Amino acid sequence: MKKIIILIPIILCIYPFLEFKKDGYLYMMSYGKDLISSQDFEKLEDRTCYNESYSYNKKRNITITSWDYEGFLFFKWIKAKYKNGNECDKEFILEESYIKHFLKNAEIIESDEIDLESLIKDKKPIIENKRYPWNDDYKWISYKLDDKYEEMFIFIEEDLIIIQVGLSDEGPKYIAYEKI
CB 5: neighbour CB atoms within 10 A? Predict the structure, then answer.
């Protein structure tokens, strides 16, 4: 009985410092009243990505992709879905391999008249984590690739051909091509 009486305060003292990872989730224990008045999430959020639904935590080297604040009585916890590494540093990158895969395997559903393969032939890809500004003068392709429907927008600005996959407000990816 004395062991239980001693054990309970120890558990209550260490509870808010407990955290563990399981099945792609990070669990962090807390005594916060609710999410709004709690400062618990601030322990996870070092840097918010441009896509504000993601945030990077440098200490743990993880990107939080979604989270819930849950609890029972005064025991609370954050259940955060995460990916290893910093997704913020590559959130806008569209790899050249994706374009090659698109050219070989995409099922074009609808498009403006454009021959993307010819357009980028003999051009050097520029792959960087950059969000390019929207241009109303674009060509458009609606397609299915790997059982996923997507939209591609192609802009020509000076010496650059900019390809955007995805809508501007839904986490688009970009690659640009320039003359060699």
Answer: 8
